[in-house]
Amino acid sequence: MAARCKPLAWFAAPLVCLTLAVPVQAEPEQLNTIKDVVLAIHRCWRPPPAEKAGPIDITVIVSFNREGAILGHPRISYESQEATDNDRIAYRIAVMETLQRCTPLPFTESLGGAVAGRPFAIPFRNKQYPPRSQEKRAWLLPKIL
């Protein structure tokens, strides 16, 4: 019996080595919450370079099907008021490229059933806001007498 196993072991050893040498592709992490969805889309976000467009805020409304693919047509619901036409076009293109790059999203079965067809308003904030002064909020502090 031992003589029989020896040739089998000789044959199986290279197969085991070949199997271990093949890189295993990891499953993408499944998204289980709405927060996970927004974070996954923001990880894909690539704003246009500063020489092509000034920083603006933009919000897109998009819906997904159960499998995480885009359902219907995304639409822009907000753009910064002071944005130029060039800024608007550059940022709209960047948003649509982000959605193409990210989707379909790997929803869990429960999240896919919960969000299918429901609109998401996803903001992309790029403007630099000045820090708020603490002095302006001083009147909100409780006064101890």
Overview of the structural elements:
The chain is of the alpha+beta class and 145 residues long. It has a domain at 27-127: Fusion Protein Consisting Of Minor Coat Protein, Glycine Rich Linker, Tola, And A His Tag, Chain: A, Domain 2. The protein is 39% helix and 16% strand. It contains 4 helices and 3 strands, in the order H-H-E-E-H-H-E. It has a 3-stranded antiparallel beta sheet with strand order 2-1-3, with helices on one face. Helix 2 crosses helix 3 (85-102). The longest helix is centred in the first third of the chain and has 20 residues, at 2-21. Mean pLDDT is 77; it is low at 10-20 and 22-26.
CATH topology of the domain at 27-127: the name is: Fusion Protein Consisting Of Minor Coat Protein, Glycine Rich Linker, Tola, And A His Tag, Chain: A, Domain 2
SSE-based structural type = alpha+beta
Largest sheet: 3 strands, antiparallel
**Could you name the CATH class of the domain at 27-127?**
Alpha Beta
Overall strand count: 3
> Helical percent range?
25-40%
- Quickly count the helices: 4
Strand content: 15-25%
Following the backbone from N to C, one meets helices and strands in this order, namely HHEEHHE
